[in-house]
Structures are given as structure tokens and as C-alpha cells.
Amino acid sequence: MTKLFATRSALVATMMMLATPAISAQQGDEMPPPSKPGKPINTGDVLSGELNAMKVRDVKNGKRVATYQITSEPRRLPPPNGLCNLETGPETFQLVTSTDAQAAQLKSFVGKEISVKVDEIACASDAGQMSEAVITKWSLIKKQ
Prior knowledge:
By secondary structure, this protein is of the alpha/beta class. The protein has helices at about 1-30, 100-105; strands spanning about 40, 45-55, 65-70, 75, 90-95, 115-125, 135-140. The strands form two sheets. Strands 2-3-5-7-6 form a five-stranded mixed β-barrel. The protein has a two-stranded parallel ribbon with strand order 1-4.
């Protein structure tokens, strides 16, 4: 009986020694490396990234409107906006179109990499804003 107990104990001890490094490795894989804040973006700077289009309902009249968004690397906004309550800063930036010409201009670039000169930027705060930050004044930079 004692020999059987000793054999089982040795088997359990061996299994624990083999399993412990595997469990530690799995736990290490789950933890992402600590992220550092993105580089700052200020008025006049260029923001580049992939342009996405989304259909959202207008808060005032309920009509569907095209909304455009740039997905980029994390960026810090100038004070008082800072990191927009995010650890690294926003990665999605909604481009507000003020004219039909701006909307038509963006429509042809959906799914492609674009660059815009940022003239006015803030953290998203209103209902219906689908991005972490909003660029209210901008101009498209033509690629050559």
C-alpha cells in the first residue's frame, strides 16, 4: 500500500513539475506588453491611416449619413484633451465633413491609406460619434 502511494506521489510531483512551466508560459502570453502613449498630434500636423466609411443615423433628423474614420497609430492630443481617457491615446479619428464636396472627395479613398492635415481636433464627446477623437477641420494631402 505504501509503495503504491509513493508511486502515485512521484507521478503527481513529476506532472506538476512539467505543467508549471507550461502554465507560466501561457499566463505570460496573455499579458500584453505595457503600452506607451502615442506621439503627440497638434494643429498643422499630418495624420495618416486607413480610411473607413460607416453609416450612422443623424441625431437630429434620423437620416443615415456617411461618416468617415481614419484608423491610425495611437496619438496624444494637445491639452486639455490629452489621451482622451485612454491609456495610449486615440487610434480612431472621425473626419467631420462640412460640405458635400469633402464627402465626395473622401468616398473615393475608402479602404485606402490617406493623409490629412489636421486643423482642429478634440476627443469624442457627443452621442453618435463613432471614433475616439474627432477632426472637425482638415484638408486632404494629395499623394504624388
